[in-house]
Amino acid sequence: MGAIYGRERLLLENWKKAWKLKSVQVGAISAFFDVLILFAEQFLGVWNIIPQDLKDLIPEQWQEYVGIFVGVGIVLARLKKQPELHSDIQPFVTVTAGHSNKDPGAVNGKFKEAELVSQFRNAVAYYLREAGIQYKTDGVGTLNQDLNSAIKLIKGSSVAVEFHMNAAASKQANGVETIALPKDKKLAQALSKAVADAFGSRLRGDKGWIDQSQSARGKLGFISNGGLIVELGFISNEAELAQFNTRYWVAAKAVAHVFIDYEKRN
User: Would you call 72 helix, strand, or coil by DSSP?
Assistant: First the structure.
């Protein structure tokens, strides 16, 4: 018994001496963060496969806390070391959500455009991260910054896209479109097709592309600064809204693949 106690005491003394070394302290802290990042990745993997219908059952008083927890998880997952590139300047994709936390955008019952497109942005960001694509967003979780903040993220990006949902007085209005400058016509058409195929919707405009001069809102700040605006469907159309809520992860994955292909070709 005394021998066992002696060995334990010796191990404890050795541990105390080792802990005084900076290399051991740094290693322990690094291991701690590795565990946190691994937990965040596993948590997000589970969270992403939970159907939206079940997420909607979360009590309203808990939704803000869940959103914060998910946001922290996304931030931690971003800390995962990415492969090094042979360039000091790394290209990145900018994905932003339309409107903001202060401006809900179009509304249909309990559904607000700003909240729906934030979910879509988060889903696209998830697939970009999984593919090792560098990206920037205007927020994580439920955070949705204003237009000025989103525009600032365009500079330096290889492509910048903001997500919106259309609305119309007619509940029959439907379809997907991407507003962009003529130079981005093909990319706009590819993005619209990816979304329309996922939602089983139709393409508006020129095979999904609309020049900002032809849009109902005319000249748009995000477009004028080099970005594209993807209208994911009509929030005022009950069928399209239902499709969005049940299949937005599928559409987000398709959009991410368009970005990935674009990055490979450019």
Answer: helix
